[in-house]
Specification:
Blueprint lengths: L29 H10 L6 E7 L1 H4 L16 H9 L3 E7 L22 H11 L5 E5 L13 H16 L14 E5 L13 H4 L3 H4 L3 H11 L2 E3 L1
Parallel strand pairs: 1-2, 1-3, 3-4, 4-5
């Protein structure tokens, strides 16, 4: 697996006021431009797996629990900007955590909300994969786990390691993805009017500390970070 030093920063305005939902245009064209310059001309299809939580799933703020259309989600915007030589695969799941089980909700067992348990499955399901973009950590701040910023950063670094170990999965001969990027979750904002206040307000202050341990871990492990 090829890893890189931390790089660019985007405005920490990804979370709209009183919501936990990411605007589909929050990344604008930064990732797209960097991909185009860093990868250069491709001789074959380049496959990108976006692995995340409700922000990747595309949860609409202030909606009836629905999501943005495929082309509106950030992974869809990425696909549109990159063009046909790239395939962007969106694997986002509401309530997904890093390496701990989530809450069981109806027919969905909390085991399936554990990113560490489901990431290898996602990689082989969508093989071959060249780049994995991991955008997780916010749900680890919820009431219950209430993890520290350091614990969350370490858990995400562990997911990056899983990517590098994911060759020849399920009897296949596919190599592990060569690249992995980590999107650092933006700090939570005012949740006073959000229906998720009771679940997330305990993590607001800790969310403001995420950048530092992610940066430290990224430098230590030579991971490419998006702030």
């Amino acid at each position: 697996m090829r890893c890189f030093e931390p790089f660019f920063r985007f405005e920490n305005d990804a979370y709209t006021t009183n919501t936990l939902s990411l605007s589909p245009m929050s990344f604008r064209n930064i990732i797209c431009v960097f991909l185009l310059f860093s990868l250069g001309s491709l001789s074959a299809e380049y496959r990108i797996l976006c692995f995340g939580d409700s922000n990747t799933w595309g949860w609409k703020p202030n909606s009836e629990k629905q999501r943005f259309l495929d082309e509106e989600r950030w992974a869809g915007v990425l696909q549109s900007e990159l063009g046909a030589r790239y395939t962007v695969i969106c694997d986002g799941l509401v309530a997904r955590r890093t390496d701990i089980d989530g809450l069981t909700v109806g027919m969905v067992d909390g085991t399936f909300l554990n990113g560490a348990k489901t990431l290898p499955v996602s990689i082989i399901r969508n093989a071959p994969v060249d780049l994995v973009i991991i955008f997780l950590g916010t749900n680890d701040l919820q009431r219950g786990p209430e993890r520290s910023a350091e614990e969350i950063a370490n858990a995400v670094a562990g997911l990056a390691s899983l990517v590098g170990e994911s060759s020849d999965l399920l009897y296949s001969s596919y190599p592990a993805p060569t690249d992995v990027w980590i999107v650092v979750p933006p700090a939570l904002r005012d949740l006073s009017s959000s229906p998720l206040k009771g679940l997330f307000e305990v993590g607001i202050e800790e969310s403001k500390q995420l950048a530092s341990p992610f940066k430290d871990g990224g430098e230590k492990e030579s991971l490419r970070l998006v702030f």
